[in-house]
Amino acid sequence: MLAWGRGLLRSKAPTSIKTRYLYADKVAGEARCLSVLTSSLSHGETVKNTLSSRWIPLTNRLTAHGARYFSSDTRSVEISKNENDLADKQLVDARKRYRFTRDDFQPVQTKPLHFDMIFDMTEDKIKVTLQTTLKNLGEQPLSELKLNSKELEILSVEQFDKFVPLGKEKNFVAHVQSFADPRALQYEVDKEDHFLVVKFTKPIQPGEEFVIRTVSVATPTENILEGLYFDYTPEGAPKTIITQCQQHGFQRIVPCIDTMDAKAYYTTTIVADKRYTNIITNGDLAPGYHTETGVPVFHPASEVLSVDDPSRHVLKYYNHKVNMAPYLFFLGVGTYETFRRTLEFPDGDTTLLEILAFPGYFEPADAKAAVKMLHDSVLWVMVSLGPEACEHHDERKRIYELLEEREALKAKEGPLCLGPNEEYVKTPLSASDAARLAAVRAELKELLKVWKKTGYKYTGAVYREIAMEN
Predict the structure, then answer these.
(1) How confident is the model at residue 138 (pLDDT cuts 50, 70, 90)?
(2) Helix, strand or coil, per DSSP, at residue 329
(3) Is the peptide bond preceding residue 109 cis, with omega within 30 degrees of 0?
(4) How does residue 236 score in pLDDT terms, banded at 50, 70 and 90?
(5) What is the DSSP letter of 370?
(6) Which residue, 167, 164, 158, 162, is CA-closest to 200?
(7) What is the DSSP letter of 296?
(8) Rounded CA gap, 242 and 55, in Å?
């Protein structure tokens, strides 16, 4: 009951007179429900002594909304302007007691377009250089920018005076390469409300793109499962560091606009210990950072850092296909056993499936069975879901039959799933099996033509499932 009452107190009073009548009518009904509930608990002075103090805030709230009296049908309400002003003041005061209110969730006025991030990772501290391309969507010039920033050490804030606008081309590589003439900006750190307030020398005009560079330090934690934190680490391995950004964890990693509608594209460079078996984040490995089969190709740390560091190396990822909200960002460096299988969609497109397991916790056969279940599930989403899920029954049945046959033929060439330290050795198919495999693939493509839109088909180069302790 107390939790319900507090929830009622947090609701915001409507502004229009017509809406206030409806709101008062609603609150009156809720108050009447409270009356029934409390009267059923006890009678007389016992109820008054134990409950009256609890409902004083609610009574004040009803009065503050201008409800002078309620008729039996709760439709006649007398509105008082002075009491409405009091209600507004109480709402302003209430904002100081809660981290977020409804007014905090407005359409984004400054939209992030692209994040270019370099993570300089050690177990103690993580230094992040972030170059953010943004656009002023508001109707007024922008003289300052408030970025969510929680428990970060801010080292510097700059604005680039020269760059090629991103526009609609979305050539992120050329865009980042064009950054020039950085200029230091003034800024303030609001530790109470967790903001980095950036002051612009020249206001940003409506519709204008701009690029700022922040250098900050984040500290991984043991017990705050938000932002960067330590997860299960095998004995003798460097500490596993992973991220949790949902719902507002990205602001513990970099200064940002940390809302669900602040969708952007990402370029992420990670400098980390060579002892880690896996260094991963959103997107696909950038060109030059992988082999034809998707195996990572590490670059020396000196390419990113000003000095050489023989204990660490570099991977770069592009999340350039689909923009995403900041709460979806993930980064992980850790020690795992990786089990892989190539998934081939009915149309012939492929993606690599990976399950990252804790070393020594699983039998290889069980882990490979889990990869097969993942394989079948991703295919099922495409073939059996979507807007035409209730159509094409015969074609769908035939597709599943052909998929089973195709995988059986591919298994004759070599193992479908590989575990740690296992190499793929291909055995040529017989002429009849090779011809049949080609025919199966051709029929699958033909069957797909009856669909206008299938279920979701994963677009990335690698789809991963990761073991986590927390």
Answers:
(1) very high
(2) coil
(3) no
(4) very high
(5) H
(6) 158
(7) B
(8) 45
Which contiguous run of DSSP H or E holds residue 440?
helix 431-448
Two tokens, residue 73 = 């049908």
Residues 87 and 24: their CA atoms lie apart, in Å, by 13
Residue intervals in the chain for CATH 2.60.40.1730: 110-333
pLDDT of 357 higher than 90: yes
Total residue length of the chain:
470
In the predicted model, is pLDDT for residue 160 greater than 80? yes
pTM: 0.77
What pLDDT is stored for residue 104 in this prediction? Answer: 76
Contacting residues for 70 by C-beta, under 8 A, at least 6 apart: 24, 28, 31, 76, 77
On the CB side of 35, how many CA atoms lie within 13 Å of its CA? 7
**Beta-bridge partners for 15:** none
Q: What is the mean pLDDT of residues 24-34?
A: 41
DSSP secondary structure, 222-276, as one string:
SS--SEEEEE---TTSPPEEEEE-TTTTGGGTS-B--STT--EEEEEEEEEETT-
Tell me the CATH number for domain 110-333.
Answer: 2.60.40.1730
Does pLDDT of 10 surpass 50?
no
Q: Regarding beta strands 186-190 and 312-324, do their DSSP bridges make them parallel or antiparallel, or are they unpaired?
A: unpaired
